[in-house]
Amino acid sequence: MSPPESKAEPEAEPEAGTLRVSDLHVSYGRSVQALHGVSLTVPQGRIVAVLGSNGAGKSTLLRAVSGTLALHRGTVERGTVHFDGVRLSGDAARSVAAGVVQVPEGRRIFGALSVEDNLRAGFLGSARRSRAELRAARERVFAQFPVLAERRRQAAGLMSGGEQQMLAMGRALMAAPRLLLLDEPSLGLAPLMVRRISEIIREINAQGTSILLVEQNAAMALELSDRASVLDVGQVRLEGASADLAAADEVRRLYLGETYETGCGAPDADGDAAYATAASAPSVTGPGLTELGRWNG
Ligand SMILES: Nc1ncnc2c1ncn2[C@@H]1O[C@H](COP(=O)(O)OP(=O)(O)OP(=O)(O)O)[C@@H](O)[C@H]1O
Ligand SMILES: [Mg+2]
Would the CB of 57 count as within 6 Å of ligand 1? Predict the structure, then answer.
């Protein structure tokens, strides 16, 4: 008698620490269908980027993963999100407990609270509770972002845009995420600060945290990430290794422009510059992306 066929479970091991989004359909109310069947994977330890112009559905995708969609009156109509082999059901607290933490678009720090209190808020969302754990988490964040240590008692709203982005990332790190969801961390920042934020993202990843990075700044995102997806009107138009995407003619024409090199934004009151990118140009939508569908490297 032959031994029972040993059916290894091929999915079990590769799923460890992996984010798997499958066929996600999301709507807001009855009239706005924001995602039409989006699938993507973030393997453990990787950086995966999602590019796309305004309204493409990038933030919606992150909200569906972090379980914050309901706060925006959005609903998952079809599809699933799994992290580490466990299905995330759209509950924000459960996503955080599973190790999935989002840094929302526009930072959303508590401007009237001190830097320290903002960090404490990030810790409260995590499963850990003791004062010693809080202190240890805060010291780790201060080591990563020395400027936050210097400003620890200052009202967060008084800091520059770049410092506020660091605080938003620090607050998320307080929950010791296994997967960090970053929604346009470069938005509104001057080129030097964009580079600093890029370095920090790389450092966080090197410490073992996987990253799903949403960006309109395609040059930054493709440089940082291993793989990338291009979203357009709620669908993935392109997916591939970031180096291949960066070399593709259509991506270069539509998403990578001179602006990344020259940083042509106008400085704002903080000394941060509005950071224009080719991706935000209106020409991104339209027939060009249909052509992009042919590229399948
Ligand atoms: N709370 C909401 N209620 C209704 N419609 C919404 C809501 N949030 C987003 N939408 C719509 O869903 C679609 C996708 O929006 P989303 O914010 O996900 O795009 P995005 O790619 O993040 O854009 P941006 O680059 O401008 O941040 C858009 O048509 C948008 O108008
Ligand atoms: Mg957005």
Answer: yes
